Amino acid sequence: MTHWRFITEVGDAAYNLAVTEVILRSVGNLRANNTLRIAYCNPNSVIIGIQHIPSQIINIPELRNLKFNIARRLTSGSPIFFTDKQIAIQFFVYDQAPSKNILRNKIISCIIEAFKQMGLEVNFQEPYKILCNGRMIAYLDTLRINHGLSISLFINVENDADYREKILTDKYAANLKNYLYGITNVNFELGGNFSKTELIETFKSAIKKEFEVSFSNEHLNQYENLLLKSHIEKHTMSEWILGFRNISEFISPDVKSITINTNEGFITVVASTNRGLITNLHISGDFYIYPPEALNALEVGLKFSPADDSYIQDYVARYIKIAKVQIFGIKEIDIVEAIKKAVL
User: Fold this and answer.
1) DSSP 8-state code for residue 70
2) Residue 316, pLDDT score
3) Could you tell me if 91 and 151 are in contact, meaning their C-beta atoms sit under 8 angstroms apart?
4) Which helix (H) or strand (E) holds 178?
5) Which residues of the chain have pLDDT under 70?
6) Selection from 5, 6, 182 nearest residue 78 by Cα
7) Can you name the residues that pair with 6 across neighbouring β-strands?
């Protein structure tokens, strides 16, 4: 029988994101056993995706008024509320075939079975929704680093509609009409007959059965603690509150901002040109892109490229094909059109 670590912790958003990356690297480098981690967040927080500009989706004054923290994760997708109304159940495993989704699919099946054991019929909708009766009951965040695979399941255990209505901007809510009202929670679905202890034990039981493992209560090891400090600093960057990510580096006064709305999200491109070249390019919005580093790579790849219609279209299409980029919420043509409108 294989042995897994079991870790339970409470921390702020930056700490939880830092620990996520640290354990993922540790497990992926075979410096730690596969790990199941139960995480709670205090104070309440909103975790935005790598592609978000905070001021576009978050009411910053209200965020501060409610004493919420903000953090940025390494993946894309919708903002994740991590508050006293959520529990995060995290899986960290060594994946021998990281180019495939066999292990990821096995964990997702295990998650669905755990909910079923609790009396909840759920299904998974790519790229991140766990749905119960057509409404999202949990957010599934996937992160890979080499052979390390992390799946973080943010479960809505109680109603947090009040938080979402106050913190999300009207513009964001309008772009994603179902995001505010397409949410449910475990307590509601079970008619109030719910305990967090039962939820955790049910998930542990499902994992034991599916993976044939045993658990032991442990803490971060020495290697992980050495990495932790620098990773906490990386995830605690106050300038994100102001909505900047490389935008201050524009060297041309000719800056254009273009937003294209889709049925499931939107994309915003801010760009500058100089003498027929793209001097800076910043892509944001609400969409899911995998792998997450593809967003920055696309920006960097087009920097100092010709501001030419056919060149932009060919470059984006070629990059998405070669890098095997997956996009949800927007389409390839939306990226191309937004960039062209911003630079031409």
Assistant:
1) E
2) 92
3) yes
4) helix 177-181
5) 1, 173-181, 233-254
6) 182
7) 36, 217
